[in-house]
Amino acid sequence: MYRHVQPFTTENQQAFYATQYEKYQHILFNLLDSPVKFTQHIGGTFHFNYPTEPILDILVGVENLHDITSLDEKRLNYAGFYRLHHAYEKKVVMAKFNNLNELKQEVRLHIIQMHTPTFQQYQQSHELLTHHPAAIQFFKAQKTSLEQPFMPIRDYENLKKQWFKQLQQYAT
After folding, report:
1. How far is the C-alpha of 27 from the C-alpha of 68, rounded, in Å?
2. CA-CA distance, 109 to 58, in Å (whole number)?
3. Membrane spanning segments where (predicted)?
4. pTM of the full predicted structure?
5. What domains can be seen in the chain, in order of their start residue?
6. 73 near 47, Cβ under 8 Å?
7. 8 A C-beta contact, residue 104 and residue 4
8. Sheet holding 92-97, edge to edge
9. Is residue 106 classed as helix, strand or coil in its secondary structure?
10. How many angstroms from the chain centroid is the CA of residue 97?
11. Over 70: is that where the pLDDT of 117 sits?
12. Distance CA 36, CA 105 (A)
């Protein structure tokens, strides 16, 4: 897998990512016996309010996380998505890659059980980073300060986890 954070983009490509989101939303809802009940385009490619990796992030809501069975994973594999095996808390993350040599993530599915604190945190963070100027400025400053070109993905994901916790101060 591509080991480093992909170069950030600031070029607003909302129309492109909105079209891509619609395409993948259709795929997710039309998988045979799909457990998917909800999708939402989240992250920097939704609004381009701050520098972001060129990855389409999709929040996927299911009634129960155990609904994502090996059969569903296989169906998602056929659609080009592969499970990322990391220590994720209360979610399943799957990614679609540019090719099977470089393995740069193009689309990432954050599969989370609906009506849980984790799901609500995702939606709240999305709302803050879309509409709250101080939260947007905080996140933009964090991203701009990174020594990004050679940062390992895992380090970057750990930093983002801290930033999302800090974002909660803007939620009041």
Report:
1. 15
2. 5
3. none
4. 0.94
5. 14-170 (3.30.460.10)
6. no
7. no
8. 36-42, 56-62, 105-113, 92-97, 81-83
9. strand
10. 13
11. yes
12. 21
